[in-house]
Amino acid sequence: MSADNDQQAREQLIDLAAQFYDQFELGEIPHMSVPTRTKNNIEYDEESDVWVYGDRESTRSANSVSGARKLLKATYTIDFLVEQLEQDRSSTLRELYYLSESWDNDEAQFTSQDESNSMVEDLEIVSGVTREDFHMRPEESGAKVMGPLHIREQTKRGDRDIHCQLDVGQGGYQIPNNPDMIEFLDNDADFVLCVETGGMRDRLVENGFDEEYDAIVVHLGGQPARATRRLTKRFHDELGLPVVVFTDGDPWSYRIYGSVAYGSIKSAHLSEYLATPEAKFIGIQPADIVEYDLPTDPLSDSDINALESELEDPRFQTDYWEEQIELQLDIEKKSEQQSLASHGLDFVTDTYLPERLSEMGVL
Questions:
Q1: 25 is in an annotated binding site
Q2: Strand 91-92 relative to strand 149-155: parallel, antiparallel, unpaired?
Q3: Spo11/DNA topoisomerase VI subunit A N-terminal domain location, by residue (predicted)?
Q4: What is the C-alpha to C-alpha distance for residues 190 and 56, in angstroms, rounded to an integer?
C-alpha cells in the first residue's frame, strides 16, 4: 500500500468522525446511515452482473441508547484505525475485538467479534474505503495458488519475485491479505481453475494438472475469502484468462460459485471489485452424478429448501441452472468432488476435467 493510499484512507475516516461534530454544531442528533445488509436489500445489477445494495438504509442514531452506543463504538474504532494508519501498522479483525477491551470506556467495547466485524463493514461502506486500506486483515484463509505465473509481491521487507510453480512447494503460493500488492510479471497460463476443497487441489497438483494444461489452480478453501475473489478477478480482468469454478455438487457449493461470479450479501458494496461475472461453473453438475454414476448422499430437507431457493435466485435463473437444479431435485442426490476417485485417482485429471473443459470451449 502506498503512502498516498494510507493518507487517503486516514482522511476519509477523519472526515467521517468530523460529520458527528458537524451534526452537534447544527443542533442535530448525531447519526450515521448505512445500507441494510440483508437479503431483502440486495439487488441484481444486470448491467454489471453482480449483487449490489438497494436503497434501504439503517440509521445508527444517538436518539436511543443502543444507537448512541453504536456511534460511540464507531468513534473509538475510527480513532484506532487512524492511529494504526499513522503508525503504518496492521491488525486482524480478531485482534480488534480483543483490543477494544483495553479502551477506557466500557460502553465502547465490543461484546462479540461479530459486532466488531460488522462495525468494520459499516465503516467500509460509509467511508468508501476497503478494510484492506484500513490495514485490517482477516485471520489466515489458507487459500493458495499453483500455476505458471511469475509475480512480484510488495512486502515490509521489500519486493519478492516469485514463480508460483518453480519457487513454491507442493502447498503453492499463499494469497496475501491484499492481492493488489501483487504485480503480474509474466505467465504461461491458459485458464484459471478455482477449486473448492483442499483435497481436490492437492490431487490436481500431485497429478501435475497445472503443468500439463497450463492452468492456474486457485484453492478457494470453502467459501472464498475476499482476497481470493479479488485475485481471481484480477487474473480474469488483467491477464484475460477464462475462470472456471470446480466445487462439490450440492446447493451450498453452488453458492460458492455464486460468490465468485456475482458477489455475496456481506460484501455487496464491493461486488464490482471482487466478483467475476464471466466465471463459469464446471462441476460437479447434477448431470455428472448421473453420467459418471458417482457415489452420492441423499439430499437433506435443508438441501432441498436451498435448491428451491436458488431457483428463485437471479444468479441461477438461467436455462442451464434451472435444468441442473431441477434434475438434482428429481434424483434427490448430491455428490462430492472426491467421489470422482471411485473411477481411479487419475480420472479427474485424465478424463473428467479435460472433457468438461473441452465442452466449455476452454481447452
A1: no
A2: unpaired
A3: 69-135
A4: 42
CA 345 to chain centre: 30
Say which DSSP state 220 is in.
-
Extract the C-alpha cell encoding 312. Answer: 428463485
- The structural domains of the chain, with segments of one domain joined by +, span 3-137, 144-359
Class of domain 3-137: mainly alpha
Which pTM does this prediction carry?
A: 0.73
* Helices 251-261 and 319-331, axial angle in degrees (round to 10): 160
346 dihedral zone (left: phi>0; alpha: psi -120 to 50; beta): alpha
196 annotated ligand-binding residue: yes
Reading the block at residue 166, the C-alpha cell is 518453480
Q: Tens of pLDDT along 32-57?
A: 766 666 666 566 666 666 666 666 76
pLDDT in tens, 243-284: 999 999 999 999 899 889 887 655 556 667 688 888 999 989
**Nearest residue to 337 via CA among 259, 266, 250:** 250
Listed in sequence order, the residues at least 6 apart from 128 whose beta carbon sits closer than 8 Å to its beta carbon are: 12
- In DSSP notation, 193-208 reads EEES-HHHHHHHHHTT
Distance CA 75, CA 91 (A): 18
Q: For the structural domain made of 144-359, what CATH number should be given? A: 3.40.1360.10
Active site residue 254: no
Name the pLDDT band for 238 (thresholds 50, 70, 90): very high
Of the residues 76, 97, 98, 257, which is catalytic? Answer: 98
In the numeric block, the cell 484459471 is attached to: 192
User: What DSSP designation does 362 have?
Assistant: -
